[in-house]
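Bumping with the actual sequence this time:
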Amino acid sequence: MLNYKNINKYQYLFFIFFLLILFEGWMCKYSNYRINIDDSFCERYFFNFWSENGFIETVQAIFLLSAFFVIINCIKTTKVKNEKKILLIICIGLFYYFGEEISWGQHYLDFNTPKSLINLNNQKEFNLHNISNLFDQLPRAFVFMFCGFNFIFIIIHKKIFKKSLKFSKFILPNNNLSFISILLLIISFPDFVNDKFDLNLGKHIGNYWYEIITLNYIRFSELQELVFSFYFLNYSLALKYKLKT
């Protein structure tokens, strides 16, 4: 199942991009090359790169919006009613994710948050996920499980029941999605273990190596969300192709 030939050219490009942004974060925070340029410029670039409405978040929004329109196209072309219903649920989920990611346009249009939300939202923004964990951690956990464990679920199901799921194409439309899932699991594992087992790695191995191992020298949550959004883009394209064939 996990054959490197399943990796498509877009994933190769993303993996290269992924390594470059990790290197960029390390260079800006730790490298001595900052001595040769204005330190304030480097810090401003670094924080803008990963901050709200920064480059990484904008890339995420582009991926999600593209995935949304691909699923819209699938709904238009698919004639099976049950498939349309599933696609509609996926479409609503992607639209919600996209809207929350950009605070429903506030990050780019810079409109004021309604007074009724200011006291409820811990970042004073026009969104739901900063109001309660019910709208933040719960959906995030679901997205993580979907993006990270779909291929494992399919493998286990086939091993136990010796047959494919009826709607397996909506779970894993193409095996190449497995490689994005593996990337997500690899980058998430160190931070998860350190947090859940309260290892306090920074105290034992030093803050530098703690940040390198767990990738916390950048905004790790944004890095995860970048992988989420790329997964959904690939998922939507794979699903579109699967439905056609």
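The tokens above came from a reply further down the thread. Residues 68 and 94 are 6 Å apart (CA to CA).
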